[in-house]
Amino acid sequence: MKHIESDSNATLKQWKKLHTKKEREKTGTFLLEGPHLIEEAISSGAKLQHVIIEENFTMEDEWLKEKFTLWSVPTRLMKQLSETEKPQGIMAVCEMMEEPEERIEKNGRYLLIDGVQDPGNLGTIIRTADSAGLDGVFLGEGTADLYNGKTVRSTQGSLFHLPIIKADLREIIAECKTLDIPVISTSLQGAVDMRKLPYMNGFALIMGNEGSGVQAEFQEESSLNVKIPIFGQAESLNVSVATGILLYELQRNR
Amino acid sequence: MKHIESDSNATLKQWKKLHTKKEREKTGTFLLEGPHLIEEAISSGAKLQHVIIEENFTMEDEWLKEKFTLWSVPTRLMKQLSETEKPQGIMAVCEMMEEPEERIEKNGRYLLIDGVQDPGNLGTIIRTADSAGLDGVFLGEGTADLYNGKTVRSTQGSLFHLPIIKADLREIIAECKTLDIPVISTSLQGAVDMRKLPYMNGFALIMGNEGSGVQAEFQEESSLNVKIPIFGQAESLNVSVATGILLYELQRNR
């Protein structure tokens, strides 16, 4: 096990730079916090470059030592590296996942995200897409960064369970159409009540920005526009909640 | 319009104390931020004791001046009073809502919250309960504070649309049983797939803590335990998302 004691250690400084999107994209790596996320990464075959442990952190077993280069740091430095109020004693530098060669497959179930800006919402949506058994999530322009610490934590590990791909949604919509996968937008105007949707083997559901919803261009290109009925006085639902309701309604007869 | 310029103004100091739960409960008041929430409060008949406006904030019309004592403050003081990174130029001190005399009515639809801790989750759940047209939400012991700034903002105004009542959930469950309202817990063991639920006119759905779920005591007292199917590899859903899925499934034939 290697040890870092100094605030000015070059390796530590390099890790701290991973708090910025620019550095994450330059290096193709991002930070993971806590034993749960690190276990999910390992069991999903993600590559960990470094595992960093707080001096007083006790691991339940020795499995980590056998597999990875471990670093120990004092509590003071762990607090600098962590982005949470209560660091969990263990962090890792993880390589970004590779994208699959075939992005869209016949009868696949996909979620297309058009500009969801809040990292917490994005992470929760990915966790929901995993629960709903989807085959992939596509992140369009203007969407929060997948590797932002808050996004990663909100996924609760689901980012390792299914392909999450940055993409031009125009291309994805076109690919879906070629494979006869219905493209469904959420919309308030001219939209069908979700409870009247027919059962679909595959689908591509587009969810939009928290304030402005799905872009008009994508709504026009969709096979159908759908809405969730509002029985009370709320103007709308939170985008993560709306995603969950729609994904489970679409798969009610699965 | 009154004006405050000094950091040590006693009225300003009093308002800032409302950042703490203790002071909110002592005074029976809480802070609102932003034009949307303030409009929702007014249109719902909530009582505003003070409306506070940033010097450079322009109101679209004169309606506020006619109704309320207005205070203007410099940007510096608004930042002290606000709990957000980007204050919206207007805040208010609002009185807590009165509770209805009859908490439970025959064939009513209710949500019982057993220890949801995150204020953002609680606010989103209240917004979802409003969208789903429920008749009331009961907050059990260990649940986040309704009047925490983050909770209030996450409700997007829905806290003014339906009764939200702090209560001993044991009493609420007993009242529901007396009125033949089925009490439904979420559970992973011995639970029915939500898609097999019969249609119910009224119901009381219990949602539990983010980590530990609904207390065993409440699960045992429930008419039935229900679960959301997980089609992928996620261990569970976010509690706000799960609430949305269940409330819309329960009301599918509404």
Widest sheet, order of strands of chain A? 8-7-6-11-9-12-10
> How much of the polypeptide of chain A forms β-strand, as a percent range?
15-25%
The count of domains of chain A is 2
Mean pLDDT of chain A: 94
Rg of Cα set of chain A: 20 Å
The ordered string of helix (H) and strand (E) elements of chain A is EHHEHEHEHEEHEHEHEEEHEH
Q: Any idea what the CATH architecture of the largest domain in chain A is?
A: 3-Layer(aba) Sandwich
Total helices of chain A: the number is: 10
Report how far the terminal alpha carbons of chain A are from each other: 49 Å
User: What is the oligomer described by this structure?
Assistant: homodimer
CATH topology of the largest domain in chain A: Alpha/beta knot
Secondary-structure-based class of chain A equals alpha/beta
Biggest interface goes to: A-B, 39 and 38 residues
The CATH class of the largest domain in chain A is identified as Alpha Beta
Low-confidence segments of chain A, ≥5 residues, pLDDT <50?
none
* Sheet with most strands of chain A: 7 strands, parallel
Fourth-level CATH superfamily of the largest domain in chain A = SPOUT methyltransferase, trefoil knot domain
Number of strands of chain A: 12
Shape of chain A: elongated
